[in-house]
Amino acid sequence: MLNTDDLALDGLLKRLHLAYTRRNWSAAVDRAEREQWSYRDFLAVMVGEEVAHRAQTGIARRTRQARFPFLKTIEEFDFSHQSTLRQIMLGSFLTPEFAPSGGCLILQGKPGRGKTHLAVAIAYKAILNGFDALFITAAELIEELSGAAEEGRMHNALKRYIVPAVLVLDEVGYLSLRDNAANVLYHVINRRYLKRKPIIFTTNKPLTEWGEVLHDPDLAAAILDRVLHRGRLLILDGPSGRNQQPLTSPQASDSSAIISGTSVPDLTEPTPLPEQLALGGSFPFGAPALWPGMRFGNDAQ
Q: Quick check: 255 pLDDT over 60?
């Protein structure tokens, strides 16, 4: 005979780690009796609510662990401030396929253009899609890993930046970095590249200046070669968002484009990487800032 004692049932639910069901089953029973639910309906409601609760709890936990400086969504970004950047251009980065794709993203622009907003929004979308993320500034990451290297614990310190499905590396070029910045950063970039784990960068510097920013043009070129192999550069060229003055450019007229994840080029679509960048040199036909929204990369694998 089944033991339907409340204490016994509570204990069983606790052993099964069904916390939400344990707290709410009694009220659900009363409602089921009033509304004359079938056994199947009652089971479906309890299981469905437990799953939904776990999903929300997981999102909240992963959001806390991401350590965002603030929480912003893609819906809150005003694309009317941009002359060439469209919402549809971010479609591939907002789908469940983004995290496993290894397709990096560099958001370049002057201060106040919304780079960090977009980076946080894309990483948060990955969290909603079931992946974890981590946000950190370039200066903080390099400082922490440099200290770890000096203390002989570099291997363990790297794990924090390799494990998350999505890494946001903010403010590349804003602050002066250590002389070993390129060497430290290369370890993170290369390991994530081999594991096909994406990184979202924000920077106020053209790619041609990363060699100076990182104090090593050769390693900077190696870093960008890996980032752009399956990655994309997007330029935010509008006015400072703090001015709240939308552009009147007709090119921004389709800012309300709906993100559907379809009819958007795949993240791995190749674009020839200029030979000069691969060699650590400069662009003979202008810096990347002249090519907003353009993809870069060698032949996709």
A: no
Give SS3 for 200.
strand
Q: Which helix (H) or strand (E) holds 48?
A: helix 39-66
Contacts of 193 (CB under 8 A, 6+ apart): 102, 226, 227, 229
Structure tokens at 256: 């309300």
Phi/psi of residue 268, nearest 5 degrees: -90, 10
Pairing outcome for strands 105-109 and 133-137: unpaired
d(CA 148, CA 159) in angstroms, rounded, equals 12
- What are the structural domain ranges in the chain? 7-64, 67-290
Dist. CA 199–CA 112, nearest whole Å: 21
Please tell me the CATH code under which domain 67-290 is placed.
3.40.50.300
Mean pLDDT estimate for the chain = 82
User: By C-alpha distance, which of 143, 148, 122, 144 is closest to 133?
Assistant: 122
R_g (Cα) of the chain, nearest Å: 24
The pTM (predicted TM-score) of the whole model is 0.76
pLDDT of 139-177, one tens digit each? 999 999 999 999 999 999 999 999 999 999 999 998 888
CA separation, residue 25 to residues 13, 14, 19, 36 (Å) = 10, 12, 10, 15
